[in-house]
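Protocol step 4 of 5: obtain the predicted structure for the target chain.
Materials: sequence only (see below). No template structures provided, no constraints applied. The aim of this step is simply to have a reference model before the mutagenesis design in step 5. Sequence pasted as it appears in the construct record:
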Amino acid sequence: MSAYVKIKRAPLTDLNNAEYLTFMNHVLDLAVNGAGAEEGETDSPSEISLAAAGGVPELGLSEEFIGGFEAELVGMADAVDESRVAEETEEMAVHETNRDNLAVYVLTRISRAGTLPLEAERDAGKYLYKKVKPYVGVASLPVAQETAKLRGLLMDLRKEENAPYVTTLGLDAYLAELEKENEAYDRLYQSRLNARAANRKESGTSIRKRVDALYDDLALLAQSYNVVQPTDRSAAFVAALNQLIAETTAAYKQRRAQATGKDEEQPETDSPETI
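Step 4 output (structure tokens):
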């Protein structure tokens, strides 16, 4: 009684995005180009051109199926590899540092003025410290809270009754610079939020679900055609896919073992399941 080779179960849910993309790209390459195509082992040019000519009949795959599979992988790569650092981020970091330094200087200047030898500065420091005490530590707040808190600090220090003391301590120019840096940071922050909302891409997780379904169809069709209408190419694809699954599983287990510090048994790569 003859035995038909069964495609192994691939550990799709265990793979991280990079491993998953690598595996699926290899699967697509095997379906389109055939085993050994990358090394120049495929002798027949017609095998390589089958996908463009109308799919891969030996595996039951249509041209539309191959094109859809490829499009999903391109979309997933775009979603996974998208840079999360917007153009505004670097400039925002400069304004964030500047406003932190200015806020710390203003608050420190006020808190220390209460011990200065000049009576006018000493009185100004003692008076203003009561006003700014709620703002101590503002530079350590989350950025959105810091923006609002700094606006409150500026508003309080610029009140009519506080203005003479601010001038006595020579803080007018520092407050103007603090306002400039704080508003510049907030403009960039809002711009980045708007840009991210406009350019938001579909998540890699949702794309993976669709690719999983496509892979299941591909494996089922390839295995079925290799049983009902076997050809050299369908047999070569099933064997190569099983080898790819075995190597991917071994690499995954090795990564997990290195992460946990435990040695895990590597799967056998030369004993495919049969049905």
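Step 4 remarks: Residues 232-260 form the longest helix (29 residues). The radius of gyration is 32 Å.
Proceed to step 5.
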